[in-house]
Amino acid sequence: MRARHAAGAALLAAVAALTGCGSAPEPPDRPTAVVFTSPPLPAGAELLDTAAPVPPGSEQSCDDPTASLRPNGVTSGPTLDAIRRRGRLIVGLDTGSNLFSFRDPTTGRVVGFDADIAREIAADLLGDPELIEFRTLSSGDREQALQDHTVDLVAKTMTITCERKEKVAFSTVYLRADQRVLAMKDSGIGGIADLAGKRVCVVRGTTSLDRIRREQPAATVLTVPSWADCLVVLQQRQVDAVSTDDAILAGLAAQDPYTQVVGDSISAEPYGIGIPRDADDLVRFVNRTLERLRADGTWTRLYNRWLSVLGPAPTPPAATYED
Ligand code: GLU
Question: What pTM, to 2 d.p., does this model score?
Answer without folding.
Answer: 0.87
